Amino acid sequence: MKLKMKKILLLLSVTALMVSCNKTGDNEYTITGTVTGVENGKTVILQKQDEEIMGKMIPVDTVKVENGKFEIKGTATEPSIHFLKIESKQGQIDFVLENGDIKIAVDKDTLGKSKVTGTYNNEELNKFKTETQAIQKDIQKKAMAFEQSNMEKMTMAQQAKDTAVINQLMKEYAKIQDPIIEKYYSYSEQNPKSFVSALITLSLFNTPKPDFVKIQKIYDGLTSELKNTKPGKAIKEKLDNRLAVEIGKKAPDFSAKNPEGKTVSLKESLGKVTIIDFWASWCGPCRQENPNVVALYNEFHDKGLNIVGVSLDREGEAESWKKAIEADKLTWTHVSNLKFWQDPIAKKYNITSIPATFILDASGKIVAKDLRGEELKAKVKELLGA
C-alpha cells in the first residue's frame, strides 16, 4: 500500500518526518477499531483459519476495548484473510490483513455488517461483496425453491439407491450456482492486482466443472506479488497437478498404509482395469454410490478389475474409516493418510471434491475420470472387452 504521506520537498523533510512518525510504516499494519456500545475491558481477538484443520481458528493477537476503541499493531508478510471476534458478541468480522492503516467501524449488533476500510485490498473486498450481494440472494432463493420442490424426489431416490436420479438432481442443483461462478471469473479477469482475485480464483477449483483455460489465463495475468502469496502459489500448484493427471497421462504412483498398517502402492495394485476411488466415511454421496461400485467390482474383479480406495478421513478417525469399509462391504484395496483435504495423494491428483474417480487401463494410463453408475460400468466393460 502506498503511504498517505510521502516526502514532499527536501526543504520540508523535517516536517515530513514528524508527520510520517504518526503513520504506519510500509512493513507494518495498524488496525484501528471503533466500537459503540461495548463496555471497556471487553476482549477483541484477531484470529486466522488453521491451514490444516478446517473450522479451527488460531488466535494471533488480543486487545481490550477502551473508550469505544481498540488498536492492534503488527507486521504482515503478505495479505491474508483474518477475522476479528469481540467478547460476548455473535459472529465475526472478516477482512484482509495487510500492511497499512486498516480502519474498522464495528456494528455491535451484527459483526458481519461492520465496515472495513483504509487499504487497497479491503476496499476491493468491499467492492466484491457489494457486487455479489444481489447474486447471492437470488441463488439462495432459487436453492430453497429447488430443495422444496425436489425434496420428495431426492428422498425416494436415496431410499431406492437410484444414483442416476440422485446425480441428475445434484447437477441441476449445482447449476443454480452458475451466476456467482461467472462473477468469480469476470472479477478475477478484470482485477489482476486484487488479492480477492487470487482467493476466488483458487476457489474455482472447487466448482463442478472448472474452466482450466480461463483459470490459467487469470493466473498468468496476476501481478508477481499475488503469484507469491499463499493462494497464488496454491493456484500454480493445482494447475501443475492438473496437467499431471489429465486423461492420457500415466497415473502418478503413490503409496500409503492400508487399514492393517501395511504400506501399499498403486503400482502393485494395478489390474487390467483399475479404478482409483477417492472417498471418505463422512461423505454421504460417496456412501450412496458404494453399492453400485460393489456390484461392479463383484461382477468384473475376476475378469481383471481392481479398485484402490483412497480415503480422506481425518486423523483420529481410523475406526470410522474401517467400519465404513466393513459396513459397505468394500472388499478391494484401501489406503489412507488420515489427513482430510491435506492428503498428499489427493493433492497430487488435484482432488477438490469427493467422490472422485480415475479409471486406468492395464498400463496405468488415465482413460476416464469421474464416471458413475451405468457410465462407469460401460467404460469398464469396454476396457475389459467384456
In short:
It is found in: Cell envelope. 40% of the residues lie in helices and 22% in strands.
What structural category arises from helix and sheet content? alpha+beta
Task: Please tally the β strands and state the result.
Answer: 15
Provide the CATH top-level class of the largest domain: Alpha Beta
Question: Helical region count?
Answer: 12
What is the total domain count? Answer: 3
User: If you average the pLDDT, what whole number results?
Assistant: 90
Distance between the termini: 64 Å
User: What percentage of residues falls in helices of 4 or more residues?
Assistant: 40-55%
CATH superfamily of the largest domain: Glutaredoxin
Per CATH, the architecture of the largest domain is: 3-Layer(aba) Sandwich
CATH topology grouping of the largest domain: Glutaredoxin
Overview of the structural elements:
The chain is α+β, with helices and mostly antiparallel strands and 386 residues long. It has twelve helices and 15 strands. It folds into three domains: 109 residues, Immunoglobulin-like, CATH 2.60.40; 123 residues, no CATH class; 130 residues, 3-Layer(aba) Sandwich (Glutaredoxin). The strands form four sheets. It has a five-stranded mixed beta sheet, covered by helices on one side. Helix 2 runs antiparallel to helix 3, helix 2 runs antiparallel to helix 4 and helix 5 runs parallel beside helix 8.
